[in-house]
C-alpha cells in the first residue's frame, strides 16, 4: 500500500488528507480502526522512541504519546509491590510480562498527560499488555505485532473503533526529511544522533567517573525521550 486516506488533517476542515510514500510501500498495516493525521504523527514519533530505547537498553520498551510528545517512556524493569500500587496495576490477575511492565511504567509516569494517549511498544503486544490498555482511555497503539488474544481485546475497545497499527520493524527512512509550511518546503538531515552507546559517558566533567549501570540506563532513557520531545521554543 503506497497511500492511506485519512478522515481529515489536523482539524476537521482540513480535507483531503492522506499519508503516502513517494517510493516503496507504507511500513504500516492498519489492523483496526481508522487513524487520523495526529494519530499517525504520534504513532511514528513514538515508534522511533521505543525502537531506540530497545536498542539502547536491550529491554522491551513502551511510550505514551500525547500531542506529538511523550507523556511517558519506560523499559520493562520488574515492578515491586509498591510500584505496582503506584502504577495502578496491583489488581491485575495475570502475570505482567516485561512489555506490559514497560507500558505500566510509561503510562504511570504522568497519568493526567497520558489520558487519551497513543501507545508505542517495541515488542509484540501480548495479552497482559492489552489487558492494561483495555481499561485506560487511549486512542490507539503501534507495535511490531500482536498475539491473537491481544488483538481480540484491543479490537473490542472504543466500541470497535480503537486504532491498532502494525509497524514493520525493519523499515528504515530516507536520510533526508522534508515538510511544508505555508507552501514552502523545509529540508534537513534526519536527527540520527546515536544515544544508545556507552561513549556518551566518556569525558564526563565530574570527579566521580564511575557511573552505575542502572544510572547509565536511566540517563539513556532520559536523553532518548528528550530527543522526541517537541521544543516549546
In short:
The chain is an alpha+beta fold and 233 residues long.
Structure description:
By secondary structure, this protein is of the alpha+beta class. 30% of the residues lie in helices and 22% in strands. It has six helices and ten strands, in the order βββαββααβαβαβββα. It has helices at 37-57, 81-86, 98-108, 127-134, 148-155, 213-227; strands at residues 3-5, 18-20, 28-32, 61-66, 69-75, 117-121, 138-143, 163-167, 176-181, 184-189. The strands form three sheets. The chain has a six-stranded mixed sheet. Strands 1-2 form a two-stranded antiparallel ribbon. A two-stranded antiparallel ribbon has the order 9-10. The longest helix has 21 residues, at 37-57. The radius of gyration is 18 Å and the shape is globular. The model has no long low-confidence stretch (mean pLDDT 91).
Features:
about 230 residues; 10 strands; 6-stranded mixed beta sheet; 6 helices; about 30% helix; two-stranded antiparallel sheet; globular; alpha+beta
Any idea what the shape is?
Answer: globular
Beta-strand percentage range = 15-25%
**N-end to C-end Cα span:** 37 Å
CA radius of gyration:
18 Å
Count of individual beta strands? 10
Strand order of the largest sheet: 3-8-7-6-4-5
Sheet with the most strands, sense and barrel status: 6 strands, mixed
